[in-house]
Amino acid sequence: MGNNYFIHEERCPHCGHYPTLEHIGKSSHGWKFQFNGSVCKTKADWEARLLNCAIIDEENRFISHQAFFDMVDRKQDGLDHTTASSKQWGIFPPDKRTYLDDEGYYFFDGDFC
């Protein structure tokens, strides 16, 4: 079970257009937070990108910038596909789209499920 997070932008007051949600990443039980690497390449990039943005989860619940990054940091002891053994997460071929940034934060550079 996981929970996806998105940048929330308000509907345009002039035309009513609602922007497409930009995916930040996913939190899954037992795993490090997995950032969307196709938008930003490091946690520091995401921190800068989100500084003045509202963050929502897939249930449309708002989360503060501080609470979001506290959650990300709490999950740093979790598994990630770059270091987990097949016994820990199953037998899957290596995926070069997953990586850790220089601080050890987990990224996936591709489409999320």
Structure in words:
It is a single chain. The chain has 113 residues and is an alpha+beta fold. The chain has one domain. It has helices at 43-50, 65-74, 86-89, and strands at 2-8, 22-28, 34-36, 54-57, 62-63, 98-100, 106-108. It has a seven-stranded mixed beta sheet with strand order 5-4-1-2-3-7-6. A hairpin with a 4-residue loop joins strand 4 (54-57) and strand 5 (62-63). The longest helix has 10 residues, at 65-74.
Q: Into how many domains do the coordinates divide? A: 1
Structural class: alpha+beta
**Whole-number average pLDDT?**
86
Q: What amount of the residues lies in strands?
A: 25-35%
Distance between the termini: 12 Å
- Name the helix and strand elements from N-terminus to C-terminus, one letter apiece: EEEHEEHHEE
Number of beta strands: 7
Low-pLDDT segments, ≥5 res: none
- Backbone CA Rg: 15 Å
Q: Which overall shape is indicated by the principal axes computed on the Cα atoms?
A: elongated
Pick out its properties.
seven-stranded mixed β-sheet, 3 helices, alpha+beta, 26% strand, 113 residues, 7 strands
SSE layout and pairings?
Layout: E1 2-8, E2 22-28, E3 34-36, H1 43-50, E4 54-57, E5 62-63, H2 65-74, H3 86-89, E6 98-100, E7 106-108
Task: Give a quick precis of the structure.
With 113 residues, the chain is an alpha+beta fold.
